[in-house]
Amino acid sequence: MNRIALAAVAAAALAGFIGGGVYLAQRGPGDDRFAQCRTGRIGGDPAQLGGPFTLIDETGAPVTEADVITGPTLIYFGYTFCPDVCPLDNSRNAEAVHLLDGRGYEVRPVFISIDPARDTPELLSEFTGYMHPRMLGLTGTPKQVQAASRAYRTFYRIQDADDDYYLIDHSTFTYLAFPDLGVVEVFERDVTPDEMAERVACFVDSF
């Protein structure tokens, strides 16, 4: 995906995110237990993101958001055939989780496929297995994947293609979610593993 396409994708997703309301305008600093953990780079309210979903895990079993978000969880939407962005982003997420493991924080990385036609549970298991032993891959029917994507206000669009080697334009945010609270933070692509680990640890401590 070229820079122009990536910028357009990110802008579309960010516009939907900001549409949920300006976080700092709605709540004062004293009302936010995570205020010291936020960077303020994204102005939308994270609480407007996320919601119920039903997907299929790497064993083919149906799961809901309650089954998946049982503790601190990093969620990313992508696909295994992605040539560069998805492997890099998920490697970053996995490295951050490894760093957190070393500090005694157990965080679950989750990879939700936006390509159910190609990403079988078996293929997802292989992909996540390369990243981190706790990374969970999820897929589902096209309608189930679309519903999960809409809940998190992500964007994806399959490029025109006449064969099985099509690419998908998509947003590239990583979401930090907690049980009962839902999404509490959104990480952009330029956040390093060390920065992500440090900020996630802050959120966990504040939780």
UniProtKB/TrEMBL annotation:
Q: Mind listing the GO molecular function terms for this protein?
A: metal ion binding
Disulfide-linked positions: C82-C86
Pfam families in alphabetical order: SCO1-SenC
Q: Which domain of life is it from?
A: Bacteria
- Keyword ATP-binding assigned to the entry: answer is no
InterPro entries (alphabetical): SCO1/SenC (IPR003782), Thioredoxin-like_sf (IPR036249)
| Keyword terms, alphabetized | Copper, Disulfide bond, Metal-binding
Q: Which residues bind Cu cation?
A: C82, C86, H170
Q: Give the range the annotation lists for the signal sequence.
A: none
Hey, which family's this protein in? Belongs to the SCO1/2 family.
What's the protein here called?
A: Protein SCO1/2
